[in-house]
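Entry 14. Ran structure prediction on the chain below.
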Amino acid sequence: MTAGAAGPRRRYAHRRLASRIGVYAAAILGALVCAGPFLWSVVTAFKQNRDLYNPQNNPFVFNRPSTADHVGYLFTDTAFVTFAWNTLWSGLLVVAITLALSLPAAYALDRFGLRWATPMAIGIFLVYLVPPSLLFLSLGRAVVAFGLQDSTWSLVLVYPTITIPVSVWLLMGFLKAIPKDIEEQAMVDGYSRVGGFVRAVLPLLFPGIVAVVVFAFTLAASEFIYALAFVAPTDQMPVSTGVPTQLVRGDVFFWQSLQAATVLVAVPIALVFNLFLDKFVAGFTMGAVKG
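Output, structure tokens:
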């Protein structure tokens, strides 16, 4: 290697190293910015009142010794465990109902070649765009008609009206990425259409199903308007309304306990979400590209 060629190569290697360092530094900085609110919540949950309410103290460090009293208060003086249980079982039921209705609807609209399938799919999606305030009275009458007022079951009835339209639209996009020949070959091999769908299409549709599960459960766990309007008894409330109801009393905010509740709810959902992150991203990418 000549001296004239070695100089440009060294400069190229230096520029490449500098660019990689810049990319990693930007990624780390972005991660810290995104994680900032969560880190603040974790630190706040264990702060003493004299530390938290002193504006001169750094909010991201313990300026005084930490304490677990406020986390204990969440479990001993509020119905947080009940709120979490109500959120869990109602969210899982909403997910089950959403999948049970959106999967066959999306399959029929995409695979049967109906002339009105596209307008019907657009109409289903437009239902999701209707503001909740416009549906409040009609859904309230439905809740009363079924005798579900002041019950967590009212949320199980109401939330699928929000999750199913979007799930049908998403699953149609995922199905368009799966060739029709797959289930046709399964039917040639002797399976019924349902059997071909279950054995040949459903495994390939798993990323889309994961996306729907995450969407439906997250909405059921975070929705506030209907939960506040339809559920008043404390033992029936989900986390989204129960925690602020018991930890915000007039102008008194139990900030540490509020942040502890945020962390305790967010961490399990984040862990489960990360288990299926690759499938979730693949599902949304497949639906967006092929839809």
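The chain has 15 helices and two strands. Will compare against last week's run tomorrow.
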